[in-house]
Amino acid sequence: MFTHAVATAAQFTHPYLGLRRAAQGVSAVVAGFVVVNEEGWIVTSAHLVDEIAAREADIAAAVEVGADPAAVAHTEVWAIPGFAQTRPRVTQAYVNRAADIAIARLEPYEPTAAAYAVPLLRDTAAEPIEQGESVCRLGFPFHGIAAGFDEARGEFEVPSGNFPVPRFALDGIVSRFNRRTAPDGTVAVFIETSTPGLRGQSGGPLLDREGRICGIQSHTSHLDLGFDAAYTAPDGSQVVERQFLNVGAASHVDEVRALLDVNGVAYTLG
C-alpha cells in the first residue's frame, strides 16, 4: 500500500544526529527532517531545534565562566546524501512551539549532490485529511549509536557503520484530530494515529498513500484506557497496573504550511 509513498519520501526524508558531551559521557540523539525545497529549507520538530539551541547555550555559558567548552561539547549532523565532505549547518530557523514544528535553512546546500525529490504537501482545501484514512510514518528509530569523543583531536567519533541509519516505516490510520491550546492561547491541530510515533521518528513525515505530506511527527500520547489489570504479586501484595493506548501525534500539514507562508518559504502543493 505504501511502497510508492515510502520510496518517494526516502528522497526528501533524512536523519539528524545530535551528539552531546557532558559529565556522564557522550550521548546520541537520532531524529528526522524533511527537505522542502531546493534552497535548503527543511521542516522538523520544534523540540529538536530547541534542544540544539539549549546545547549551544550550554557551550556559551562554559566559555563565559572560563570552563572547558569541550566538557559540554555539542555537534549536529544533518545527513543528506552527497554531503560527505561539506556538512550543512542551520543558518536560519523559525518555530511554532504550540504546533511543535520548526523550519530551518541548511547551508551550504547543493541539491545536485543529493538524491532529492520535491515533496508535495497535501492540499487540504482540495482534499481534506479524513478520519479513518490510511497513513504511514517514516523515520529512524531503533538505533543505538555508541559515539565517543577524541580528547586529542577534540572531536566526536561515530563508529563506522552506525550512521547514516536506515529508515523505518510504520502505518496506521487517522484516529482523530486533536486541538491543543498553548499557554499563550495559541491553538494548534495535531493528527492522532492508531500507531505510536517511535523514538527517532520525530521530525519525519506522516504520509498518505501517494507519498504526500499530511503532517510532521511530533510525539506519542499515552491515553488511559480506563480499565486496569489487578493481580496478586508473589509476596502477597495487590498490584494494579494502569492500561494505556499509545497513539502517534503529528503536527497537521496546515500548521506546517502556515509557518512556511508567514516566513516566505516556497513549497509545492499536491
Integer average pLDDT: 88
Query: Which parts are unreliable, with pLDDT below 50 for 5 consecutive residues or more?
Result: none
Portion in strands? 35-45%
Q: Which structural class is indicated by helix and strand composition?
A: mainly beta
Sheet with most strands: 6 strands, antiparallel
Number of helices: 3
CATH class: Mainly Beta
- Please bin the fraction of helical residues: 10-25%
Q: First CA to last CA: what distance?
A: 19 Å
Number of domains: 1
List SSEs in N-to-C order: HEEEHEEEEEEEEEEEEHE
Provide structural commentary.
The protein has a single domain (3-269), classed as Thrombin, subunit H. The mean pLDDT is 88. The chain has 3 helices and 16 strands. The strands form 4 sheets. It has a 6-stranded antiparallel sheet, with helices on both faces. The chain has a 6-stranded antiparallel β-barrel with strand order 8-11-12-15-14-13. It has a two-stranded parallel sheet with strand order 7-16. It is mainly beta and 270 residues long.
Keywords:
single chain, 270 residues, mainly beta, Thrombin, subunit H, six-stranded antiparallel sheet, 3 helices, 16 strands, 44% strand, globular
